[in-house]
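**User:** Hello, beginner here. Are you able to go through the protein record under this note? It all follows right here:
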Amino acid sequence: MAYRSGGAAAVGLVGLLRMVPSAVLAPLLSPLADRGRRERVLVVVSTVRGLATAAAAALVAVDGPVAVVYALAVVSTIAATLFRPAHSALLPSLCHTGHELASANVVRGLLDSAATLIGPRLAAVLLGLSGVEMVFAVSAAASLWSAALVVGLRYDAPPRPDAGRASRLLPEAAEGLRAVASNGGLLLVFGLGAAQALTRGALTVLSVVAAIELLGTGESGVGALMTSVGVGAVLGSLAASLLVSTTHLGRWFALGIGLWGLPLAIVGSVPVEPVALGVLALIGVGNALVDVAGFTLMARMARDEVLARVFGVFESVVALSVGLGSLVASLLVERFDTSTALIVVGLVCPVLATLALSRLGRLDLAVGALDEDVTLLRGVSMLAPLPLPAVEGLARGLRPFEVAAGETVFRQGDTGDEWFVIESGTVDVLGDGQVVTTLGPGEGFGEIALLRDTPRTATVVAREDLHLRALCADHFVPVVLGHPHSTRRAGADVDELLDRFHPHEEE
């Protein structure tokens, strides 16, 4: 409709205007998901959307005021803006390893792609069978069903700030911006994500113009092109489950970014419908890789306490870039021609992805090192129940600590201010001068003094050269005691150790 009334420029302007509300609201509302339990935010959002859409369905059925229907649609849209940041921030807390998180993002990408492909076609069927009110009613039921599913979610959530401080939304949103600005890895992923979103926005214009003016397939051809992208996204999500590993996320991300643009350049160079349908499916594959690798990388690099705000900023960047992309594409078509616009836009992502390859490779190395530390900590009994963000938080605070054979790590009666985990080597644990036990790689010690707030209850001596990782008490204690499962496990472990060292409370 926009193309018929105003050409490519009208399509681009509409695309930009559609994105403005999400761009403004996402970073402003996302602090709400960093307070309290994130699944409750999802329940509220889904319930509000369901009730608003159900009310719209009822009004349409009785020919109610159109203005009220529009207002309800706005309410639903505002609520939806908070869903993706909250959902993206919640997923890591349901996982225990980076591989689990990547796998969860594969499943989410597959479901998103399938819903994007099936949803419009289901709406068309419902419109044909009944009317708009039925589309609204089914959408409302889906939202309320989503809320019901999340209500039953059980997991070990960390303590979070009170959710009732509405007056602090702006400062908290600014903290999310600072978290992104201070992290070079996040800035790189955000920049490439913005390029991909710009290309996505351009595609909304170029698919219309290319189908009508370049390929000669008319308006029906627009649907065929976008269906090809959707099919590619579903197939790409299935392939991502076999291809993506946590050690090469940056490289897969670069490939996905490149696949977002290259097919457009090919269509611009070879404007033939079968070629267009085939190569545009690769955009869907690229989208699957970008979603899996990009969202997993962001979750691994950002601190859990600001994670929803980081994703909120990302949603804002994406929304602005999509809107800008649609406008840029329309201006290119008006200034040059459709083929030139396709080639210019299509080269943006491949060029940027190629330039970023070395930095993404370093990002892979950093994530790999983080995985090694997570694996080391996971071997400690009291830390095993912790969700991935908590263990990663501990891993980021580890520092290397070396002790030569025969030297003492700490003595019985010392003030305890650090916890240790053995990377290599062995130690003797002595209570009142007697060897109580010997510890080796992957085992931790020093927790009794920290968790019970007592002096050191044993002396620890290196039997051979030691490579330890140390964690300060201020970092260790709040995490261990901030999760019910790890608190119980730590309490049981400490009691067992104290019983072994009887009659004193040695470690």
Q: What stands out?
A: The two ends are 75 Å apart (CA to CA). The chain is about 70% helix and 10% strand. Strands lie at 399-403, 408-410, 418-424, 427-431, 434-439, 444-445, 459-462, 466-472.
